[in-house]
Amino acid sequence: MFDLPAQRAHLSEKYDLTPSPELAASMTDIYDRMSRVVSPVDWAIYAPYVKAIIDLKAERNAVILGHNYMTPEIYHGISDFGGDSLQLAIRATEVEADVIVQCGVHFMAETSKILSPTKTVLMPDMEAGCSLAESITAEGIEEMRTRYPGAPVVSYVNTTAEVKAASDICCTSSNAAQIVAAQDSHTVIMTPDRYLAQNVARDVPQKNVVWWEGSCIVHEQYSASDLRDFRRWNPGTRLIAHPECPPDVVAESDFSGSTSGIIKYVTDEKPEKALLITECSMASNIADELPEVEFVGPCNMCPYMKKITLEKVLFALDTMTGQIEVDADVAVKARQSVQRMIDLSRQLGI
Ligand code: 13P
Ligand code: SF4
Question: Partner of 33 at 20 to 30 A CA spacing, among 8, 23, 72, 161?
Fold first, then answer.
């Protein structure tokens, strides 16, 4: 369990973390990337943490990988690379650093460790999980194999290392349809997200896609009737959904894609008004780059992603705690599944 008071006491002995308008003013190059969504008062609170983390990164030869759902002070303030699950997984294979700090959720850090076993991978809060990753175990994969003999198992990267090891290949939301279409079998098992699988089944009608009954607690909250109401009350708004949303929600939207696919769509299209049907921080992270787009609510927060804070990142880097370990045999098999996905994605030009 997390001992926040002890962490705070440790940090306050080593760092001056008092809010500082002067320090904040000296870091406007960073603040300019988030000034539309982070107030100057909040920036004065964040700046000492951002400065301490940047200094410590250099000392430890560390890089920070920030998922698109991180809050702006993490995404723009301290991350060396931002991106969706696939992009971060690929980055993990490319970085030269000794230490990777994963600002995202646990399965992402595990994926980085699987791909870079010699690097130290730090997770600022081990309790940053994922409802999808928690919905299936390696036994669940075997159950599906028994139910559909001979069918390949395509598991979303939002899974534990054990589940990846028990699968044939991984996918992310940016390559799921293509990975399924490329399988050498009519029936393809997709785990653990039933909605992603149903969305893929619609896009790849030549395959018989069968699925595990997991779901994302953030995206399952949206309903098609909410979207219809929203469109009626806010005409002209572009509705953009993540494929972890139920299929009728995706059908009501104007575009569906991975978190980076969504960013690309909004950046290319620059709609006057956009509703991102996904996690809240997505819109905040692109608001400054796209001043011409008005991002309208509602949005849902991922309680797991929101466990990652500047304070926890600083503590992890300072103490080198929160190191990810993966059993060596499991890691070898899990790596095969992730690497097959990366290789196939490259081959398919994704
Ligand atoms: P992306 O692969 O689109 O970044 O999605 C990861 C995730 O957890 C979305 O809920
Ligand atoms: Fe998991 Fe959903 Fe949170 Fe993504 S948004 S980490 S899928 S719970």
Answer: 8
CA angle 285, 291, 297 (to 5 degrees): 60
pLDDT per residue over 260-317, tens digit each? Answer: 999 999 999 999 999 999 999 999 999 999 999 999 988 899 999 999 999 999 999 9
Rounded distance between C-alpha atoms, residue 344 and residue 90, angstroms: 13
Exposed/middle/buried for residue 160 (C-beta within 10 Å: 0-12, 13-18, 19+):
buried
Q: Which two tokens stand for residue 90?
A: 């690929």
pTM attached to this predicted model = 0.94
Selection from 75, 86, 138, 79 nearest residue 111 by Cα: 86
The Å distance, Cα 216 to ligand 2 centre, comes to 5
Q: What's the rounded Cα separation, in Å, for the pair 95 and 59?
A: 16
Give per-residue pLDDT as tens, 292-302: 999 998 889 99
What is the residue with the minimal CA distance to atom 6 of ligand 2? 130
**Nearest-angstrom CA–CA distance, 241 and 263:** 11
CA distance 293 to 101: 32
Query: Would you state the structure tokens that stand for residue 210, as one six-digit string?
Result: 């069968």
Angstrom distance (rounded) from CA 169 to CA 147: 18
- Whose alpha carbon is nearest atom 3 of ligand 2? 302
Q: Are 277 and 228 in contact (CB under 8 A)?
A: no
Residue in 172, 195, 255, 277 to alter for ligand 1 test, most ligand atoms within 8 A of Cβ:
172
The ligand that comes nearest to the alpha carbon of residue 84 is: 1
- CA dist 200 and 258 (Å) reads 13
